[in-house]
Design goal:
Blueprint (H helix, E strand, L loop, with lengths): L1 H10 L2 H27 L4 H24 L7 H6 L2 H31 L13 H4 L1 H22 L4 H20 L1
Helix pairs in contact: 2-3, 3-7, 5-7
């Protein structure tokens, strides 16, 4: 039962969905603003504030979605020359460091956001709405880091998992090239 819930959770990529919505809003607002400014001579400053806020949300949600899929940039050359045990040890160490980093960033961004009393100039709304993308994203990254850490510890001696992950990685690379 819990395996089914975990599979459904993995299938819902809400970070990517929300990021797609916010980048769409950003693009539409920028196009509208350019049209209004250059063709009609009208300028709305609130459009810039909303588009910048949506873009900030897009960046952090995109980073979270990439992290969730372990799609952030890494150096494979080092890991490829290590033996299987060495790769697994390095992976656990990396996940531990990323857990500490993401938890620290969550803590710092939460404190920053909760203590913010600035408001935007045109809409006069609190920057908390914009800055809350930071603790939300780093909070999710912390949760994913915990999951990755536990997963790697549990499967440390499972050789089938390593082969399966390498096959999935290879298939993903082929799929990326074909697109």
């Amino acid at each position: 039962m819990s395996n089914d819930i975990l599979k459904k959770f993995r299938a819902i990529e809400f970070e990517a969905l929300l990021g797609s919505i916010t980048i769409s809003i950003t693009v539409i607002l920028v196009i509208v603003n350019v049209f209004l400014r250059y063709f009609l001579g009208i300028q709305y400053s609130w459009i810039e504030e909303v588009s910048v806020g949506c873009f900030i949300w897009t960046v952090y949600l995109g980073a979270t979605a990439s992290y969730r899929k372990r799609g952030l940039i890494g150096v494979d050359a080092v890991t490829k020359i290590l033996p299987l045990k060495g790769r697994r040890v390095l992976r656990v160490i990396t996940n531990t460091l990323l857990l500490v980093l993401s938890a620290s960033m969550f803590y710092l961004s939460y404190n920053y956001t909760s203590s913010s009393d600035k408001i935007t100039s045109a809409l006069e709304i609190s920057y908390v709405y914009i800055n809350s993308s930071l603790p939300i994203s780093f909070g999710l990254m912390t949760i994913y880091s915990i999951y990755f850490f536990i997963y790697d510890i549990i499967n440390f001696n499972n050789l089938e998992i390593e082969e399966q992950e390498e096959q999935e990685e290879f298939e993903q690379q082929i799929e990326d090239v074909m697109m």
